[in-house]
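Provenance and format

Records in this collection were gathered into a single text stream. Each protein contributes a sequence line and a token line. The two records reproduced below are adjacent in the stream.
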Amino acid sequence: MSAPYARIVRRETHSPRTVATIVLAGLIILACGYAGVELVLRMLGQPPLLVTPEAALDWVATLPDLQPQAAITAGGVALALIGLLLMLHAILPGRTARHQMLDENRAVLVDNGVLASSLARRVETVARIPHGQAVVSVSHRQATVDVTPTSGIPVDESAIRAAVDDEIAAYNLKPGLRATVRINPTGAVGS
């Protein structure tokens, strides 16, 4: 695949971090703006909006000695976890609900919902069950097929598994999907 197609596929299969970045930047701007207002009010000799900068710094300095220590430790751990989650959110790639169909000359993307619908239709055809009795969910690397047979009419689980595997192989997806097929032991009432 050519470089422009690779960039397009990467952009369309990975979620941007724009919303999280804007929210975090907005919070930082608000905090800096508040600190600036408090400092200006202090320099003008006016009363603070909430707390003077000196009182805030004194409170931060006495924080390690405050009681109960368990609450202070829990607060520190919570802040560390929030920081770790923000770092992981920034570093790890976000995924959209799409897969790439490998093709040498084109960039082909398919939504997970379309894959699920196509797999469900194939399962319903192979199992000879009415529409809606095969429920498929597709995630990044897993396709889960739940089949509810019609009461009194058995379904061939091995034929369903083979059909699902053949259908997934025909799509030539990246990243590949593993399929799990579950047959509901209780059947649905036929129409």
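Adjacent record:
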Amino acid sequence: MTVVWLSIGWVFASVGVACLPMRKQYIPGVALLLCAPVLIILIGMQFGWVFALLGLAAFVSMFRNPLRYIAARLRGENPEIPE
């Protein structure tokens, strides 16, 4: 049951960070980005791989732009950051 409450808290924190101006989103956004894989693994361990895949799909959907930026940086490109 703890994983469920942690997941709900993560979602509300993500929505709160999304409401911030772009320049203030970086630090809390990175923290949420780093916490998500741990939470998805915990969901998979407690509820099964189907729910972990659903959580992964939701995570990728919510963080698609930061993940694209990270992928571009790993390819050696220099993507533009919005102000």
